[in-house]
Specification:
The protein is of the alpha+beta class and about 130 residues long. It has two domains: about 45 residues; about 70 residues, no CATH class. It contains four helices and seven strands. The protein has a four-stranded antiparallel β-sheet with strand order 1-2-3-4, with helices on one face. A three-stranded antiparallel β-sheet has the order 5-6-7. A hairpin with a 2-residue loop joins strand 5 and strand 6. The longest helix is centred in the middle third of the chain and has 23 residues. Pfam families: bPH_6 (PF10756).
């Protein structure tokens, strides 16, 4: 069976880079120092998020040997025998957030729809199918 990969949507990462460029331009063209500082911080935050979305692709990869999760510290590979997969729903302020939890004791990796590019339930089903 082929390896499966999950990553943030390309359009979302591209939009992040476009917003980064717009915020940086705005910061350079701002006349007041307080505007430059505020928009400069915004540009840096957008830069960090966009760089993370670009550098950590694919965020999750799975094959018959196990799962590899990419982070800024580098990729981590977990074998199927050391991994517990579950989907958790958290309800706050009337909204439900769904996340995929990969528990390789003592490390816990939590991935959301933004990290995966698809519903965590669908990803969990694909991971369980690969595990078999």
């Amino acid at each position: 069976m082929d390896a499966k990969r999950w990553a943030p949507p390309v359009a979302l990462v591209g939009c992040g880079w476009a917003l980064t460029a717009a915020a940086a331009t705005w910061a350079l063209l701002a006349e007041r120092p307080t505007d430059r500082v505020f928009v400069g911080v915004l540009a840096l935050a957008l830069l960090a998020a966009s760089a993370f979305g670009t550098l950590c692709r694919p965020r999750l990869q799975a094959d018959t040997s196990g799962v590899t999760v990419r982070a800024l510290t580098g990729p981590r590979h977990y074998g199927w025998d050391e991994l517990t997969i579950r989907v958790r729903e958290t309800r706050r302020l009337g909204l439900t957030a769904t996340s995929l939890e990969l528990d390789a004791n003592p490390e816990l990796t939590v991935l959301t729809r933004l990290d995966l590019g698809e519903d965590p339930y669908t990803t969990a089903d694909a991971l369980h199918a690969l595990r078999r």
